[in-house]
């Protein structure tokens, strides 16, 4: 049965990545609840905190999300007053998203989240850096292969 060892769950890299991702998002829960944000709303806000203004296309690409997922998230953040959505002048199919003062103020409340999440992972700074680098290396490689295959 050695030929089937590769099919054992314990031998899959995808499973611990999947389970860790789910647990990591769960760990964010109490922090994000205080901000009245979902995880997806939080990652949108992180992009806006960094860039202030971004197109919906660039945001979708940056976050690896499709428009169907992103549209209701952006609508809720707009209704909450954290961003504005305007049709792009050069292409009306796109939205230009801009951080508001209320969105900027939310950043002050969120600044404690990253170190708290890092602490819950139980990794040294070196281990954290290695995990980060390897995860992004794998992601870039898989995306590159998908692009080459035309999917």
Describe what this molecule looks like in 3D:
With 151 residues, the protein is mainly alpha-helical. Strands 1-3-2 form a three-stranded antiparallel beta sheet. The longest helix is centred in the C-terminal third of the chain and has 25 residues, at 125-149. It folds into two domains: 1-34 and 112-151, no CATH class; 36-110, Arc Repressor Mutant, subunit A, CATH 1.10.10. It contains seven helices and three strands; from the N terminus they run ααβααββααα. The chain starts with 13 loop residues before the first helix and ends with a helix. The protein has helices at residues 14-35, 39-51, 56-63, 67-79, 101-110, 113-121, 125-149, and strands at residues 53-55, 83-87, 95-99. β2 and β3 (95-99) form a beta hairpin.
